[in-house]
Specification:
The protein has 130 residues and is an alpha/beta fold. The chain has one domain. The chain has six helices and four strands; from the N terminus they run E-H-E-H-H-E-H-E-H-H. Strands 2-1-3-4 form a four-stranded parallel sheet, with helices on both faces. Helix 1 packs across helix 6. The radius of gyration is 14 Å and the shape is globular. The relative contact order is 0.22.
Length: 130
């Protein structure tokens, strides 16, 4: 481990193409970096004991799938304000990338993930520099 501050990623768990992109982006980023962990939004919503403490231990970047921003709202209901909320739908609206499937990534879905990983990694770096 590099000694940098750990950052938690809390990804949308909704059943939309944007939710799938949020989850894959989060999982890939955690797999590719030593300074990140993922937060299970289902366990957080269910108020599982271990997650009550975990969401308060690390700075969190929420990755919301759509304009509902459920990830951020769930965390705030649990008393945690994410440092950042990245809305996948809003970010992809700035591009010509549109995911189409709720459970499998096609070539376009993979491009969406690649685009968002760059943004997430930039945000992680900014959090760690604070």
């Amino acid at each position: 481990m590099s000694g940098k501050k750990k950052v938690a990623l809390a990804a949308c768990s909704g059943m939309s193409p944007y939710g799938l992109v949020a989850r894959v982006t989060s999982a890939d980023t955690v797999a590719e970096t030593d300074e990140t962990i993922s937060i299970c939004m289902g366990a957080t919503s269910a108020d599982r004991e271990g997650f009550r403490n975990l969401i308060k231990k690390y700075p969190i970047i929420a990755i919301s799938g759509c304009d509902g921003d459920c990830t951020q709202k769930i965390l705030e209901q649990k008393g945690v304000k994410p440092l950042k909320n990245i809305n996948v739908m809003e970010e992809l609206d700035k591009t010509d990338l549109n995911p189409t499937d709720v459970c499998r990534l096609d070539e376009t879905g993979e491009e969406c993930v690649k685009y968002l990983k760059k943004k997430i990694k930039k945000e992680i770096k900014e959090v760690q520099e604070k």
